[in-house]
């Protein structure tokens, strides 16, 4: 039986990771958070005091970094970094790292290898439009900027970060612009993707809607 690939794309805060994790468990397949891969590179660069504007140094980091996923954990050079990659500092810089073509090519190659090895549900910005154009199922999750910002605000507050909603709204608007206007593999809805607006839906409703298509 061939591997199944489910692509889930959309902007920051639309709920991709949350629903993809639940569906992965329901279907007993691997969940790959591609955004976390770019976050891991960003986190490593910050930790090593690399200037986020230094493309050559960032590309070198990407070439010499091991990223893997096991049981819903992301491993950076053999260490679980689930929480470390979710800080506001990483969030504010990840789109700048992710727009570098050479880094995307390295990550996309890794993502495709994962999809060839086993069945996956993969979320990101360009999975259905670029990484897996022939994915078995393609979804595009979206929500209003304010709704996405409120979700991120609550999430960060629960983790103890001192953040302001206005700042998060600005950050999301900047990330949306960088993600959708980058030259290589930008954030776009694939023509054959099923679009779901999650603004007025809870997690269970979104999962149920997606599962109907998959089943």
UniProtKB/TrEMBL annotation:
<dbReference type="GO" id="GO:0005524">
    <property type="term" value="F:ATP binding"/>
</dbReference>
<dbReference type="InterPro" id="IPR003136">
    <property type="entry name" value="Cytidylate_kin"/>
</dbReference>
<keyword id="KW-0547">Nucleotide-binding</keyword>
<keyword id="KW-0418">Kinase</keyword>
<feature type="binding site">
    <location>
        <begin position="10"/>
        <end position="18"/>
    </location>
    <ligand>
        <name>ATP</name>
    </ligand>
</feature>
<dbReference type="GO" id="GO:0036430">
    <property type="term" value="F:CMP kinase activity"/>
</dbReference>
<dbReference type="GO" id="GO:0006220">
    <property type="term" value="P:pyrimidine nucleotide metabolic process"/>
</dbReference>
<feature type="domain" description="Cytidylate kinase">
    <location>
        <begin position="6"/>
        <end position="215"/>
    </location>
</feature>
<dbReference type="InterPro" id="IPR027417">
    <property type="entry name" value="P-loop_NTPase"/>
</dbReference>
<keyword id="KW-0963">Cytoplasm</keyword>
<keyword id="KW-0808">Transferase</keyword>
<dbReference type="GO" id="GO:0036431">
    <property type="term" value="F:dCMP kinase activity"/>
</dbReference>
<protein>
    <recommendedName>
        <fullName>Cytidylate kinase</fullName>
        <ecNumber>2.7.4.25</ecNumber>
    </recommendedName>
</protein>
<dbReference type="GO" id="GO:0005829">
    <property type="term" value="C:cytosol"/>
</dbReference>
<comment type="similarity">
    <text>Belongs to the cytidylate kinase family. Type 1 subfamily.</text>
</comment>
<keyword id="KW-0067">ATP-binding</keyword>
<dbReference type="Pfam" id="PF02224">
    <property type="entry name" value="Cytidylate_kin"/>
</dbReference>
<dbReference type="InterPro" id="IPR011994">
    <property type="entry name" value="Cytidylate_kinase_dom"/>
</dbReference>
<dbReference type="GO" id="GO:0015949">
    <property type="term" value="P:nucleobase-containing small molecule interconversion"/>
</dbReference>
């Amino acid at each position: 039986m061939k591997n199944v690939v489910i692509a889930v794309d959309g902007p920051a805060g639309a709920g991709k990771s949350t629903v993809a994790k639940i569906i992965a468990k329901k279907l007993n397949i691997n969940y790959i958070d591609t955004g976390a891969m770019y976050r891991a590179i960003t986190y490593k660069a910050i930790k090593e005091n690399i200037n986020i504007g230094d493309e050559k140094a960032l590309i070198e980091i990407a070439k010499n970094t091991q990223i893997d996923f096991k049981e819903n954990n992301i491993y950076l050079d053999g260490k679980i970094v689930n929480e470390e990659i979710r800080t506001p500092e990483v969030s504010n810089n990840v789109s700048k790292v992710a727009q570098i073509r050479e880094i995307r090519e390295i990550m996309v190659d890794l993502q495709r290898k994962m999809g060839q090895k086993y069945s996956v549900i993969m979320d990101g910005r360009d999975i259905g439009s670029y990484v897996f154009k022939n994915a078995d199922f393609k979804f595009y999750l979206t929500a209003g900027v304010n709704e996405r910002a409120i979700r991120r605000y609550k999430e960060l507050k629960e983790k103890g970060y001192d953040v302001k909603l206005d700042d998060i709204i600005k950050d999301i608007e900047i990330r949306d612009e960088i993600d959708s206007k980058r030259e290589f593999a930008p954030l776009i809805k694939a023509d054959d993707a099923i679009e779901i607006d999650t603004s007025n839906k809870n997690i269970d409703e979104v999962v149920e809607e997606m599962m109907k298509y998959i089943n």
